[in-house]
């Protein structure tokens, strides 16, 4: 875990998809850096465990039930975070799901579900965040980070809905940044490479998954802490001149 410091002191960070994987990691490093964190996802029991663990370390965390595909749920999550910590001035839109398989095997319902969470969910989260930051007069120092993927840039068979949704997220980040360029908040994307998380851990343990890893130049997955530095930077005051960017952090996997 990144060493505790106060680079995010005074910030309130809302993180979607925070019940495991990258979202949990982001919540823990943001809290360690001094932020108040609102952990949002559907698995409330898991969120409460993580929040309690963060609290035991002397930091502030709140578990909030959230379905990012539903606008009312998004608004309620922001209401709860604001009631506890004040205006949310920092957001990580991380929630995402995947349905894999042949194009012919993926149902319309599965396709729509991926886009409802991965694209509509990011849109609703970022829009609500920016609206509230602007209304509170805190948009200039506001930070929104959208979690995309290297699959949104490269061609990977078997995950068409996921890859297409992440390409949409990357472009949406630029569009948000342009629209709010004069008012704030700053909006940036990160496109992680393959890292072992809840969504892919079992597959990478298979023979096919291991074969995939051997195609990478460094023949390994991204380290657990590989995104810490760029995420902490993008959430901080140091990123005041950074907006509309997409940071690819993949340990050279796309080389």
From TrEMBL:
It comes from the Bacteria. Gene3D superfamilies: NAD(P)-binding Rossmann-like Domain. Residues 11-198 form the Ketoreductase domain. Keywords: Oxidoreductase. InterPro entries: KR_dom, NAD(P)-bd_dom_sf, Sc_DH/Rdtase_CS, SDR_fam. The keyword Oxidoreductase applies. CDD domains: SDR_c. Belongs to the short-chain dehydrogenases/reductases (SDR) family. This is SDR family oxidoreductase. It comes from Tsuneonella flava. The lineage of its organism: Bacteria, Pseudomonadati, Pseudomonadota, Alphaproteobacteria, Sphingomonadales.
